[in-house]
Specification:
Helix 1 runs parallel beside helix 2. The chain is mainly alpha-helical and 112 residues long. It is globular and about 55 Å long. A two-stranded parallel ribbon has the order 1-2. It starts with a helix and ends with a helix. Helix content is 62%, strand content 7%. The protein is built from 4 helices and 2 strands, in the order H-E-H-E-H-H.
Length: 112
Amino acid sequence: INQSKNVVFDEVIKESQVKMARLLCGFCTLLNVPVWITGYSEMKKNGIFETYTESLKKILLNESLNKTQVFLFRHFSMNQFTIDLNKQKRENETTVKALERIGTGYRIKYLV
């Protein structure tokens, strides 16, 4: 019985991730706002959010979403966001430009 509960639970989680990817893209398109996704480490293959990532990839490929408004960053925990920003920021580059470049780079790496 526990195994069948786990299968149902896994399916519910997967279904919710697909819906969340659709909602994210819907809001991004409707409101024409940038989206920051922080904490991309579990978006990899066999990660907790693999289904979300694959759904988001399909949407980004097939729909008229402005892909340039989706940015991925390291998570804020353990100051990883700031460490990454400081490490990657170029001399004389504004913080806004650095964030745009870094977030775009991770989007291309993980969602294209």
